[in-house]
Fold this sequence. Notes:
The protein is an alpha/beta fold. The protein contains 18 helices and 14 strands. It folds into three domains: about 5-135, Response regulator (Rossmann fold); about 155-315, P-loop containing nucleotide triphosphate hydrolases (Rossmann fold), CATH 3.40.50.300; about 400-454, Arc Repressor Mutant, subunit A (Orthogonal Bundle), CATH 1.10.10. Helices cover about 45% and strands about 15% of the residues. The chain has a five-stranded parallel β-sheet, with helices on both faces. A five-stranded parallel β-sheet has the order 7-8-11-6-12, with helices on both faces. Strand 9 (about 270) and strand 10 form a beta hairpin. Helix 5 crosses helix 13 and helix 16 (about 405-425) packs across helix 17. The longest helix has about 30 residues, at about 110-140.
Amino acid sequence: MNDHSVLIIDDDRAFRSVYANLLGGEGFAVDEADDRPTARAKFEQTAYDVVLLDLMLPPDGSVDAGLEQLAEFLEMRPEAKIVVVSGAGDTQFMLRAVREGAYDFLTKPLDPDVVLVVVQRAVARRRLERRVDELQTCLAEEQPDRQMIGQSRAFEQCVETAQRVAPTDLPVLITGEPGTGKELMARSVHAMSDRSDAPIVAVNCGALPDNLLESTLFGHVEGAFTGAINDKAGLFREADGGTVFLDEVGDMPSHLQVKLLRTLETGDVLPVGADRAVQVDVRIISATNRDLEELQQQNQFREDLYWRIKGAEIHLPPLRERTGDIPLLATHFLNNSASLCADGRPRRLSDAAVEALQQHRWPGNLRELRHEMQRAAVMSTDPVLQPEDFSFVTDQGTLSVPEDAPLKQKVQALEEREIHSALQRFDGNRTRAADELGLSRQGLLNKMDRYGLE
């Protein structure tokens, strides 16, 4: 049995033969069953990727019994992609089946091309879910501190750089828009380093007043200032042997930049009010969403410090540039949100929901996606999420772009949406889609690559 397996459950031998040959010719491993007991036995023995289930089967031939069979299968294997099949007059029962967890429904007489597309999409979804399961196992068992998920080339390059520099003591500068996962990347580098048994401590350099930031980083001695009633070690000494993560390092005030530079050059930490420095052994990982070179031009960031913290640079791409990773990430966040749901079960994404997620521009990046999945999981009463479950989808069902977004972003969002729609209308035929859009085929391919459309 290969990874692409299908079970056809139908009492019509000719029907089974036609679609077994069709799917077998496309490389699927196909099994057949003509009644419920046989189907149940096969389903128990084999984890099929897709099941084509006729709702009206012997011995009783009732739709209700077919729905009970669906519920039984999903209870046995919630991850199964079950496509219900029935006559044209059974639409209400088929919609009910989808609400109860069926992947899709098909109405007889079937169009072979439609059957093939539905099965291929179901298999692709199952493959995606398996990949998420593998990643979660890796996170839980092998690298519990590393939660970076993605398959896009841009993201993989970031991970490859992190893997190369992690075993060294080279300082790392992580750049990227807010919400792209800079702290997660910093913790991943630490988790993969030889310092992983020692602590990693983090501070947001823009979130504290100057005097408090200095004391937080370098510590202070008793009596150094009003309120200093005890000695304080500071984060550099707390992290001795480990890693200090300086988030939003571009917001650090100038006089502390000088003090930080000395620590990086000598390994000495001078607590506030002390007359003698303390030696520490720490690795520095910094992050910023600001352009440090531009800040240098404005005399707001020291050039010598810049070159000290930029031993290696990892630039995390915004989510809109890695749309292929969105289904993986969204499913991961939904699984993590299961405990928030009334029934304690993770929500799943419909194909339309995946499309909506990939069309959204995500100005808040991963942080926005995580919060959106948490909200949708809690608010939805259906185990399968639809586009209307997302806050960024308008009442008319169209995807919104922030009103204050630049004109260029709005134009790009419209262009991406039209290209995606044309590809859907022509079942992925790029030549026909390009003709309708008034583009050359190569022009369409270039734009698909730009927007991460597959």
